[in-house]
Amino acid sequence: MTISMYQASVPVLVRMLGNLSAILTKAAAYAEAKKIEPRVLLDARLAPDMLSFTRQVQIATDIAKGCGARLAAADVPKYEDNEASFDELQARITKTVAFLNSLRPEQIDGSEDRDVTIPTRDQPLQFKGLVFLLNFVLPNFYFHVTTAYAILRHNGLEIGKLDFLGAR
Known about the structure:
Layout: H1 5-33, H2 38-42, H3 53-71, H4 86-102, H5 105-108, E1 115-118, E2 125-128, H6 129-154, H7 161-165
Antiparallel strand pairs: 1-2
Helix pairs in contact: 1-3, 1-4, 1-6, 3-4, 3-6
């Protein structure tokens, strides 16, 4: 049995974004129940030189939409990065999932050898599609989703491994 580029990307990203969305729902309820100003959690970080919870969610969605678009040879949707509430982060996740779900398997399957270029401040990063997905997208995506989870857990939100993994 083989796995397609579509199967290895879009459903995986959509599932984890859904899990992240569920965690955000719990975080908003936690802040309300404990009378914690939401900005405290949204601005929280694990270390002083680390990006905030909000940025972790923004970057996770950027990686996901960028992956789908680049593997499908489509334009990467642009977001403002101005979310300032749990609801706005939820809307960003919803928008990202809708974009990913708009991509069809035939747009992505066969992209293993597609040239993918990521613009950076210094010089563009260049990959072939499979290497891009396995060695760049998935590790980065999971890093930012995990960090968002860890920031909330560190701040007292009662979540566990099953929240991160989601329902089977």
